[in-house]
Design brief:
- By secondary structure, the protein is of the alpha/beta class.
- It has one domain: Divalent-metal-dependent TIM barrel enzymes (TIM Barrel, Alpha-Beta Barrel).
- It has twelve helices and nine strands.
- The protein has an eight-stranded parallel β-barrel with strand order 1-2-3-4-5-6-7-9, surrounded by four helices.
- α3 packs parallel to α4 and α6 runs parallel beside α7.
- The longest helix is centred in the N-terminal third of the chain and has 20 residues.
- The protein is globular.
Length: 296
Amino acid sequence: MTLIKPSILISNTFDPLSRDEEHVMKLYQTIADLNYYNAIETRIIFNTQVQKEFADLATLHEWYVTFWVTGNLNNLAFRLNNLNESERIKAVDQVKIYCDLAVKSNAKAIGFCSGKTEGHPLEEQEQFFKSVVSILVHARKYEELDIIIEPLDSSSDKRNTLGDLETSLSFFQRINSSGLNHDKRIRCCIDTAHFALNNDNLSETIKELSIYSDRVHFANAILDPSHIDYGDKHIAIGDPGFLDKGYCIELYEQCRTLDFISKDTYLTIEERVLDQQKMFEKESEHREFLNTLRAI
């Protein structure tokens, strides 16, 4: 049986607090004091002093740290699938900078997405493949720095080039068959909301992508296009979304029977919390549910 370890998506559960580098170490110390999570998924750190303090804390608690830079790239209007070659290279160079910053904070992985499609899927997939190869070459300068790629929904609000199961599976199969991933540095993040929004079967998706993946995000979404909150809105588990606790238990039990890309496989509950009065309450709820799953 696969051992599933708990991860926390700081940048969602503590959204506003995670953006404040002046005070963010207090938050990380609070999470460390819980002595619970094996992995931390959060935002890139730019402040050099915070980088050092965070690196020390991550080392002490042996966290597998992932910095997600999708939002950073979006803010700069950079797309790794850009058909404009000079613009694509700018995006790649920016991710290389993020890789260098991540290592200073003792992060073990950098995570990103392919980018929004402009209606030329095959050409964009090729551009994204080239970008990943370039980033991989740079990441190998470091002893430990994995590349986490998250397929997003291809037909809902995110409309990413790398999205549905068929496209994602083809991409990761190509990565592996090319020999590029001999050290298993390129990994897939399976987000339940995005694949559900693609109308992919989640059980099949997890089964097919598990050998390329080291983590699963239990993320909920409303699948009815007529609903005001349709799409990837990072809502809580349960109604009115498709993902309730019973479905989570079903998917978790399946995950335990599968072989993932690494011996350490991580699970997080993905919910964006904007109300600072409820953030720690929500974290506690997520942790309690993770404990329920791990006790199965």
